[in-house]
């Protein structure tokens, strides 16, 4: 576009004189100066102030005109700047520029506040994404070099230290270690791997250094490919925004057409200016973005980040909520939940198991050792020939006895007969000289505040709560589902299974997906609203794939999101009802000549102030405790939808952190 270079030059010059490099703030200041000067002239009849304000007025008009022309030429549509430019032009021609300056000032101020909150929230998200590790150590010509992951090529040898994330897909050529694959498979317990075994990017190397030969280029690794798929999926979420833009276009053009119709019928610029000043849909323009911004800012105070207002608006209409298990409603940390004695006393069984596990360093070993110590085991037996098996198990020799510890599958492969016993969780069987002596049951640590979580979620309007987990044991999935009182549960879910589950339930209505790992990322992106729980190992990818990010570890924050989303929906409804009613009355008064531009602008500002204050109570809880609080509470009663997720006692709290799960009102 030949004229783009000229607009770029103008923007560059405006940025030079804009406070903090913010053109929107420059608009506000450029409007407030003529408002003050014209206002003083109107009060004290000082024409010098009027003429002093004209250059600032024209400068403000030029800024808005430049923004309008950019939108028209580059995006082929009109923007709210059209009405501001018309109001300022008509009121200037009509000799009443104070009205135009006031309209420009208030709209500019409201939009500046709204978009500043949204921009800061987006910057916070982007800064978190940049924290993700982008490089890896590669062995080249007997030297270790740190290079960007996307520059790794097939067959390169990558050094992966203990405790580091695996950066590429490849095969172990040296070393052995337990690998935490929970971010990929959802399986909460580590998998032992040695030379010849494959590893996947995004997993975590827990217990020993590894050398891995890359099977693919860095750009083609699981992590890279899945990121590209997620970004493509997110591009498909713009339909709602496009429909909203179309509605705004119709509204702006309709207001403009009506104002010109009045002028052609009456020939009165005064009447046209009055109609534009009172009907200029500031309240319409501010109704949604101010509520979005206030809600985003309020959630951000509690370390809940939202990608704009659309996902928060969608939360009001969610029919199905799918919860991942590992790291979402559980901590992804194993604990001993039960010790079953079969042929050996409990204390002796624990002493033997802890002695063997003390030779290893992985989460299950630590959980057994810690439990044994808590039960009074104070010494470890001498252990010989302790060896990690390729599967999930350990063999060792203690004294003259051969010990085998592992899963039921591990013992069955050794033709050891297992008795039928009842347990809930993951069983670590212990056999001495091929005879089963006991079982240590391991399960993922459950957060106490998760009990009955699904009941609270359903009280917020969600119809179905589903637990989906990559854990391959149905008993464990059922235990967690019963604990939170989910409607259904699915286990052994791969990433594609969770995505298919999201799409299946989308046939019944909007779906929200809540998860924390890379394995959840495709389903987070596919859902109508994807919510990532913080504290996971790949924070950057989860943030990219999600609409809302809970930076803490508490899935109860879901209730906070639901409560504030419903409240936001009610406030937006109130704002639009107010805007319709006020503009209709104002337009009637203006059409019949019962207003002048100054009074029309003042009434218009009153309408806009109401909308901003009403939206502001999402962020500033003190508004509802002020003298005007009863007005807003009455509005809530008139527009409240089934009083979902409401807790009146929470209104008195000044901090969002105090807003945890409350009993829903019937």
The percentage helix is 40-55%
Shape by Cα distribution: elongated
Largest sheet: 7 strands, mixed
Strand order of the largest sheet: 10-22-21-20-11-18-19
Question: Span from first to last CA?
Answer: 60 Å
Total number of strands: 22
Mean pLDDT: 82
Report the radius of gyration as a whole number of Å: 32 Å
Beta-strand proportion:
15-25%
Oligomerization category of the chains in this entry: single chain
Low confidence ranges = 647-666
Return the structural class.
Answer: alpha+beta
Number of helices: 23
3D structure, described in words:
With 666 residues, this protein is an alpha+beta fold. It has 23 helices and 22 strands. It has a seven-stranded mixed sheet, with helices on both faces. Strands 2-1-3-9-4-7 form a six-stranded antiparallel sheet, with no helix packed on it. Helix 5 runs parallel beside helix 21, helix 8 (239-266) packs antiparallel against helix 9 (269-279) and helix 10 (282-301) packs parallel to helix 21 (597-616). The longest helix has 35 residues, at 557-591. The protein is elongated, with a radius of gyration of 32 Å. The protein starts with a helix and ends in a 15-residue tail after the last helix. Mean pLDDT is 82; it is low at 647-666. The chain crosses the membrane at residues 24-44, 50-69, 102-118, 250-269, 275-297, 576-595. Residues 133-231 form the P-type ATPase A domain. Belongs to the cation transport ATPase (P-type) (TC 3.A.3) family. Type IB subfamily.
């Amino acid at each position: 576009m030949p004229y783009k270079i000229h607009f770029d030059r103008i923007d560059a010059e405006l940025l030079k004189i804009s406070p903090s490099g913010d053109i929107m703030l420059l608009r506000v200041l450029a409007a407030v100066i003529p408002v003050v000067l014209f206002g003083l002239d109107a009060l004290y009849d000082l024409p010098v102030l009027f003429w002093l304000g004209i250059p600032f007025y024209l400068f403000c008009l030029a800024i808005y005109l430049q923004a309008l022309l950019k939108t028209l030429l580059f995006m082929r549509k009109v923007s709210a700047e059209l009405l501001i430019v018309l109001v300022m032009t008509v009121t200037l021609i009509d000799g009443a520029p104070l009205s135009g300056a006031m309209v420009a000032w208030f709209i500019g101020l409201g939009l500046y506040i709204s978009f500043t909150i949204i921009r800061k929230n987006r910057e916070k998200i982007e800064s978190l994404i940049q924290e993700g590790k982008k490089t890896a150590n590669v062995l080249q010509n007997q030297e270790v070099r740190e290079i960007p992951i996307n520059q790794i090529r097939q067959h390169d040898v990558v050094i992966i230290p203990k405790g580091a994330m695996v950066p590429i897909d490849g095969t172990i050529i040296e070393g052995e270690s337990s690998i935490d694959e929970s971010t990929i498979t959802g399986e909460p317990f580590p998998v032992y791997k040695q030379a010849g075994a494959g590893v996947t990017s995004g997993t975590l190397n827990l217990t020993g250094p590894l050398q891995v030969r890359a099977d693919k280029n860095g750009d083609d690794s699981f992590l890279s490919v899945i990121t590209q798929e997620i970004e493509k999926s997110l591009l498909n979420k713009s339909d709602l925004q496009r429909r909203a833009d179309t509605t705004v276009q119709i509204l702006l053009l309709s207001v403009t057409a009506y104002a010109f119709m009045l002028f052609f019928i009456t020939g009165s610029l005064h009447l046209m200016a009055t109609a534009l000043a009172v009907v200029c849909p500031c309240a319409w323009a501010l109704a949604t973005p101010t509520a979005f911004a206030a809600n985003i800012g309020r959630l951000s105070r509690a370390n809940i980040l939202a990608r704009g207002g659309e996902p928060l608006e969608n939360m009001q209409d969610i029919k199905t909520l799918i919860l991942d298990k590992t790291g979402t409603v559980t901590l992804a940390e194993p604990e001993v939940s039960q010790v079953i004695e079969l042929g050996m006393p409990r204390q002796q069984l624990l002493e033997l198991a802890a002695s063997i596990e003390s030779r290893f360093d992985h989460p299950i070993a630590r959980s057994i050792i810690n439990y044994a110590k808590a039960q009074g085991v104070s010494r470890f037996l001498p252990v010989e020939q302790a060896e990690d098996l390729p599967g999930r198990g350990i063999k060792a020799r203690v004294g003259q006895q051969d010990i085998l510890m592992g899963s039921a599958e591990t013992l069955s492969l050794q033709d050891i007969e297992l008795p039928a016993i009842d347990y809930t969780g993951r069983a670590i069987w212990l056999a001495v000289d091929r005879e089963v002596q006991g079982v240590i049951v391991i399960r993922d640590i459950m957060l106490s505040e998760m009990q009955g979580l699904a009941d609270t979620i359903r009280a917020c309007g969600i119809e179905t709560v589903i637990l989906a987990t990559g854990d391959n044991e149905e008993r464990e999935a059922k235990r967690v589902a019963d604990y939170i009182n989910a409607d259904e549960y699915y286990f052994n879910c791969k990433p594609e299974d969770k995505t298919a589950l999201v799409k299946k339930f989308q046939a019944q209505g909007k779906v929200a997906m809540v998860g924390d790992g890379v394995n959840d990322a495709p389903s987070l992106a596919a859902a109508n609203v994807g919510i990532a729980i913080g504290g996971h190992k790949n924070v950057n990818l989860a943030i990219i794939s999600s609409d809302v990010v809970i930076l803490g570890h508490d899935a109860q924050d879901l209730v906070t999101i639901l409560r504030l989303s419903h409240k936001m929906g009610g406030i937006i409804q109130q704002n639009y009802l107010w805007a319709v009613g006020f503009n209709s009355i104002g337009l009637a008064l203006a059409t019949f000549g019962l207003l002048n531009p100054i009074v029309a602008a003042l009434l218009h500002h009153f309408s806009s102030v109401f909308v901003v204050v009403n939206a502001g109570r999402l962020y500033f809880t003190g508004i509802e405790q002020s003298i005007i609080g009863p007005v807003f509470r009455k509005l809530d009663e008139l527009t409240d939808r089934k009083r979902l997720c409401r807790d009146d006692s929470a209104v008195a709290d000044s901090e969002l952190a105090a807003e945890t799960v409350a009993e829903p009102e019937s």
